[in-house]
Every structure is written in structure tokens, then in C-alpha cells.
Amino acid sequence: MTTLANPARAPLLERVNAVIRRIIGAPDFSAYLRHQSVRHPNCTPLTEKEFLDEQLTARYSTPGSRCC
Amino acid sequence: MRILKALLWACVALLGAGAFGFLALQRGEHVSAGWLLTAALCTYAIAYRFYSKIIAAKIFALDPARATPAERLSDGRDFVPTNKWIVFGQHFAAIAGPGPLVGPTLAAQFGFLPGFIWIVVGVALGGAVQDCVILCASTRRDGKSLGQMAKEEIGPIAGFTALVATFGIMIILIAVLALIVVNALRSSPWGTVTLGLTIPIAIIMGLWMRYVRPGRVLETTAIGVILLVVSLYAGRWVADSPALAPLFTLSAVQLAVAIVIYGFTASVLPVWLLLAPRGYLSAFVKIGVVVALAGGIFILLPPLQMPATTRFVDGTGPLFAGKVFPFVFITIACGAISGFHALISSGTTPKLIENEKDARFIGYGAMLSESLVATLALIAACILTPGTYFAINAPAGLIGTTVESAAQAINQWGFVVSPTELTALAAKVHEASLLSRTGGAPSLAVGMANIFAKVLGGEGSMALWYHFAIMFEALFILTTLDAGTRVGRFMLQDLGKHIWAPFGRVSWYPAVLMSSALVVGSWGYFLYQGVTDPLGGVNLLWPIFGISNQLLAAIALCVGTTVIIKMGKAKYSFITIIPLTWLAIVTLTAGWQKIFSPDVKLGFLSHATSLAATVAGGALPAGANTAGDAARMIFNDRLDAAVVAVFMISVMVILIDSALLWSRVIRGTVPCVSTEVPFTARAVPAQS
Which tens digits make up the pLDDT trace of B634-655? Predict the structure, then answer.
């Protein structure tokens, strides 16, 4: 869990991975888990599948994530 | 140190001015692309350093100590404080669609200079200003959308107009983009198979990320890219097979029907299955190709074959009718100023900004980069000889359907091209014919293939590079098309629920199917109209798209001006009023000409009248086989005139609505209150 708690300590490959994912617009599940563990330690976070569904549905239902 | 810096900026300014001067004054010789790039890059540097500072320092006074919505509302989902380079990357990937590639290619019919000047000057004073102002305004308002800001800052009329305009521009945008794909793939089994295979590839990726390796986006996308290369070779294999090739040699109407079915299916399938993996693939390929194109052009600095201006500035151009003013400003929207960006700048991006100061780099900087992409596309289109360029882009109604008739017509326009040259070029890219592939994608693909083949692979690889470029453009366009259809469906459901509540239920299948069918039917109608148009359809649809996109920009700039005036910074409101005034002049002039021009190639109404006169004379107009066809063509002209009129009225409504409010705020009858979220100091968080 150390890599989750502190992104700066994650291996290089994982950090590159996270950067590219953000740029191509993929939801970042580990960032979400990190956020939950710090801000809402007592709540059960969504599973990865639930999180992805929620994020993708939102992304593809409003204008504002893609252009002409 | 100060003197050194001033000297350095003076040098940049001189260099840029010198390059512009050279471009304006050179005669006869082929200009190197290096001059365009120098002029563009120097202008971008000066604009960023000095002009964007007015927005950042004087107007918004961006403050690194102020907490951003990403920090205050951090939820690990949408609001995530993110490094500025990453936000820049994702913002750029979101704003750079097919628009900046297609518009400049079409505008090259005027020569390279008019389009180039508009791309560079337009972005510095217009497009980048709009993106940056909206991004700052939205960041100060918890990431509110353009529609919400229009409603809250100006009033409900402006809010409603923004909503309808967004929907309208989406429909026209999708129709014209689909038309470009149709014209690129018509009678091209290689292109059709390659693009067709991207659909199963995306579905395989979707299933893989869902069931086999959940969440492995990058690895899956890498597999997808490899499969794309395989599909490129598969396309060639099919095109070479005498048994299979005819099956995939589709007519324009067949392709249009296929795209309509695709759009409908994509809009009702779960997002994870098709849209999301396709989006990742497209973003990945997009950034790769843009970087490769920039690299190729910077290495080769190819000479431009297109003259600085052509005779078509007089309005008789074969790609689309209309004089250089106002039509170059309508044709190139994305790359100079694009209203659509205001939706991104008030959508995903403001929720990611970690430090307010980054808004200048992201809002203004990313738009400058998009302008550079537009410049590169213009260069790629202008390295073709004008004869080749017009053979690929002029409609069959003007140049006929054989290489001989095309060469003859183009020679009459004063550009040299021989039938053998055209046959040889088509053979080189492994196509039966390249004539009249209106829409810009194929001529850009030929230009890109020229550049790529020179850097890597040589002449023999032209066919592969050409089809790679076509696949890239079409992949990219279909991504906008399917996502746009889905977003359009949600917007329609949202509007429709006020009339009939169950229509708004997003997971109720009858409502989903109905709204999807309505959206697809709307753009499908315009697409069909374009596909069956003897003048190629682009002449018809692209100007309407340009007008609608600039209308959205006008709305965004009205919102920006209102925000600035309400902050009590009216003396700096020139920054949004300059581009707003220009856009109002341009859209209203272009709209007026599209509706009322007596030139039948330009004005919808005069075209309808001339069709009616032909029918009344007992003949059938070109492109019509029955009296019913002719009646439909007349109806379409009037419909298009009505669509443009609606856009024009919307511009005027929102301008008047805003101007009244500004004068009230300045005269003091309406209190000058900023609606910004009050200042909160940034906590330096333990971690994000």
C-alpha cells in the first residue's frame, strides 16, 4: 500500500503509466483509492468496476470532454 | 538582466515580423515552410509572454495562494489536483480534434497566406483568449459549465441560447465529419476495411479491459495500436483480392448508411464496450501522429507549391463558394478560434487545476499548440501542387469524373496538371482514383504521406502511409462522431423531459432508443443531403458548421466579457470585445451571404429559386433523377437557409442581451458583483 499512499514513491513505470492514462482521458482508480483512504478512511470505496462505470458514464454524457 | 531579456524579446519580435514580411512580399518562388513556422512560433511566443499576461495578471490576478476547486472540492473523481503538464496534455488532447486538420486544408483554396494569417493572428487575439478567459472564469466558479455561466452571468435567455447552440453545432459537426469520412472511403476497399476493423478492435479492447485485465488501459491500448497496424495490412490484402475487393468497394450512399447505423449503435451500447476503448486508441494515435507530423515538417522544411493567394479569393472557388472575406474566417474555426473549446475549458479541465497560475499555461498555451497543428495541416496541404490539390478537392460537378476532364478543367483555372500525373498519384497510393474526394482528408493524407515517406520508407511506402493517414483521420473523426451522438442524446433527453417527463429517463430503453434515433436522424439527414449533392456536400455543410462554431465562440466571449465587466475590470474588456466584434461581423456577413446571395453557388435561396425555375421549365436539375428529387433539393436549400437564420438570430439575441447588461453594469443600475467563489487560502495538503 505504500505506493498508493504516496504517488511520488511509486516506481517510475507506474508514474509514466498514470501520466499517459490521464492524458488520454482514462479514469484513475488508484488516485481515487488514495483519496478515499486519506479523506474517508471509514467508507468502503467503490470497486474498480463500479468506479470505471461511474466515471465513463459521466464522461460520455456531457459535452466538455471532447472537441471537434 | 532586464536589458538582456528586453533585447531577446525584441529579437523574437523582429524575427517574426521579418518572416511575415517575407511571406507577404515574396513573389514567384516556392516559399519554404520554415518561413511559416518562424512567423507562427515568434507570434505565439510574443502573444503568450505579453498578451496572455493581461488576462492572468491584470484581469483575473491569478493567485497561487488561492485554493482551486480541485483542492477545495477534491473527490478523487472529477476534482483532482493535477500537475500542470498533465492537465496541459489532457486539455490539448481534448481540444485538438479533426477540425484543425480539415479547416486549413479547405481554406488552402485561397492560397496559403489568408488561412495562415488568420490561424496565427486569430489564435493570439481570439481563440487562446477565449479558452483562457473561460478557463479562469470557470476555475473561479467551481468548474461551472459554459451553459450554467451564460445563464447565471447574463440571463436565462442567454443560457437557453447556449444550450440550443451547443446542440445545433453538434448535429452539424457530426454530419460534416461523417461526410468527410464518406468521401475519403468511397470506392476505397483498403480504407473501408481498415477503418471497419477499428470497430472490432475497439470492442476486443473493451472486453479485454472489462473481463481479462481490468483497468489495464495502457497495455490494452498498446495491443490496440498493434492491431491497427495489422488492420492496415489486412486492408491492402483485401484491396488486392479480386474476390473480396468488390464486396468492400462501397458507394457514398452505402457508406453513409453504414455510418448512421454505427452512430446509432455506438450511442446505445455500454460506454466501456466501444466508446471508451476507441477514445483511448484515438487519443494515443492522435498525439503520436501530431508529434510525427511536426517532426517531419521541422526536419524537411518542405517548399510550398501553393501560391500565397490564388484567383479564388474572388469567391469562385471550387471547394466552397464565397470570397476570402468572410469565408476564410468561417472555414478555419478550430486552430484560430473555436467555440467548442469553451465547453472543454468549462468542463473537465478546470476541475483538475492544482494552482490557479497554471490556467494561463493550460488555457492560452494549449490553444497555441492547437494553432500550430492547424499551421502544420495547412503546410501539409500546400506542399501538393495546386493542380493535384484541386483535382483531389474539387467536386465532380466541376471537373468531371475522368483524369482527362479533371486535368482540362484545372488547366483552364490556370494550374498545371496532366492526366498521367493524376493517374500516377492514384496508383502510388493504391487507389482507383483520387478525383473529387472533397472534404480535405484525402489531400491532407497525400501531403502527410509525402512527408512521412520522405523521412521513413521512401517512395514505395507512400500507399501504406496514405492509408495510415486516412485511417488516423477517420478513426479520429468517428471518435468525435460516436461520442458526440451520445452526448447529443443526453442533451436531447434533458431538454425533452420538460415536455414529457419519461423521455428524460436515461436508463429507460424506449427513451434511449427514441432520443438516439432523433439525434442520428438529424445528422443523418444532413449527411445524406451532403452525400447526394453534386457539388460534393462540403460546399454546403462546412460553412454552416463554421458559422455555428463561431456562434458558440461569440456566446463564450459574451460570457467572458460579462465576467470581466462584473469584476469591475471594464477597462480590460477589450480583450474579449475585440474577437467578439470580429466574430459578430464575420458570422453575420457569412450567414447573410449564405442565405441571400444572388450567386446560386453561394446563396441557398437563390439556388432554390434557380432549381425551381429549371423544374418549371420542364427539365431536371443536375443530381436529380425524378421530380421528387428536385423538390427535395429545393426543400433542403430552404431548410439550410432556415438553419443559418436560426444561428444568426441566436448570435444577435445573445449580443443584445449581453450588451444591455454591460451598459447597466457600467452605468451602475445593476450592481457590479462578481459571482466568484470567495477566496480561500490554499492549504498545503499532506498529499493530493
Answer: 999 999 999 999 999 999 999 9
